[in-house]
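for the recovery benchmark. tokens below, seq after
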């Protein structure tokens, strides 16, 4: 049975999982941690779960205001020193801090639009959305500025503003008179995949959250004020898929064919890549992370460790994500946990093929051994009698 290497990440995860509002991770010329790749044909390639989880931890470390700027040895609690420089190694957040300081060393008027956008992305990942928006002051007319502003607004829960900026960004990207050919060095198939994400899944997420925000505002305006029951909350319906089998029941690894057909390409590959990208953009968003867990459970590939991945995600959503009051999550987690903890039945070794020829050979060999032993005994007796 495939066992995923989760244990090594456990200590780090416990340190960084202090659930907060989402922090987006966008395109950056020096940092591709939060970018899901594509193959030569332009098809997205989801990360193996342990690699995806490592990248998500990096983005969460960088956004955690309590995370040290220098690496700390978890055993000694001392700074980890670079033997070549004699200085402490920088942590994930420290690297980001150093990059921000380097960017600020350049006068604001001397920064290019690309440099301003990169600084905004770093500020956003550093959990300073107001400074991120300030870095784009006066930048409202191009794709890069508007898609970054969309993420900033989404991070602040301002979904209507996020929709406006994203809509402008998508219009700029589709402008045939000024075709968008590269963004921060990203071009070709990789850029096409990111633009597809913006037009499709990201836009749908923003619309879903915007509708929920309006519903909550309407409930709050009632007298007496009301609230949307969070215990009935479900993952974001990015794909409009119900995670049930042909009988309409929740069963990991047995997704109904009609439901599977709703995924892009009618399979799990692009769906996993899509949600991985959304989670890397918003690494602290619990509902998106829960959706990723449901995808792994639905695929249920034992060789890939899907059930262990689903269990790890759902455990995290319940514990550090504080989603223990979501009824569907708790029910699905129980089912996944039982299946993930079951060791596969060992197959008995294959029986040797039976044939009369094999029997004749076997007894022939035994007979030869017996005759040889009897001959030696007679020979010894004969020599002893002389």
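predicted aa per position
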């Amino acid at each position: 049975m495939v066992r995923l290497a989760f244990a090594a990440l456990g200590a780090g995860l416990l340190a960084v999982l202090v659930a907060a509002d989402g922090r987006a991770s966008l395109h950056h010329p020096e940092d591709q941690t939060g970018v899901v790749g594509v193959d030569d044909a332009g098809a997205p390639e989801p990360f193996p779960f342990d690699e995806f989880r490592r990248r998500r931890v990096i983005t969460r470390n960088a956004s955690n205001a309590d995370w040290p700027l220098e690496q700390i040895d978890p055993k000694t609690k001392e700074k980890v020193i670079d033997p070549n420089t004699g200085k402490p190694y920088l942590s994930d957040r420290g690297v980001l801090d150093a990059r921000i300081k380097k960017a600020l060393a350049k006068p604001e008027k001397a920064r290019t639009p690309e440099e301003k956008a990169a600084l905004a992305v770093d500020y956003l990942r550093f959990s300073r959305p107001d400074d991120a928006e300030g870095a784009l002051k006066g930048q409202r007319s191009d794709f890069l500025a508007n898609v970054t502003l969309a993420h900033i607004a989404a991070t602040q829960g301002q979904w209507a503003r996020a929709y406006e900026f994203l809509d402008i960004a998508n219009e700029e990207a589709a402008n045939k008179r000024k075709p968008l050919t590269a963004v921060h060095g990203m071009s070709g198939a990789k850029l096409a995949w990111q633009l597809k994400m913006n037009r499709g899944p990201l836009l749908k997420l923003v619309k879903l959250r915007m509708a929920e925000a309006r519903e909550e505002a309407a409930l709050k305006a009632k007298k007496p004020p009301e609230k949307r029951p969070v215990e009935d909350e479900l993952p974001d319906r990015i794909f409009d898929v119900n995670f049930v089998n042909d009988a309409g029941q929740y069963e990991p690894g047995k997704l109904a064919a009609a439901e599977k057909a709703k995924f892009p390409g009618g399979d799990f590959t692009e769906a996993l890549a899509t949600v991985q990208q959304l989670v890397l953009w918003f690494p602290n968003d619990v509902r998106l992370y829960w959706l990723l867990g449901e995808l792994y459970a639905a695929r249920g590939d034992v060789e890939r460790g899907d059930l262990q991945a689903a269990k790890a995600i759902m455990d995290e959503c319940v514990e550090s994500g504080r989603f223990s009051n979501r009824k569907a999550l708790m029910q699905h987690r129980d089912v996944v946990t039982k299946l993930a903890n079951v060791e596969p039945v060992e197959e008995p070794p294959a029986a040797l093929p039976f044939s009369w020829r094999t029997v004749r050979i076997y007894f022939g060999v035994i007979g030869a051994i017996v005759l040889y032993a009897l001959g030696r005994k007679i020979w010894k007796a004969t020599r002893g009698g002389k």
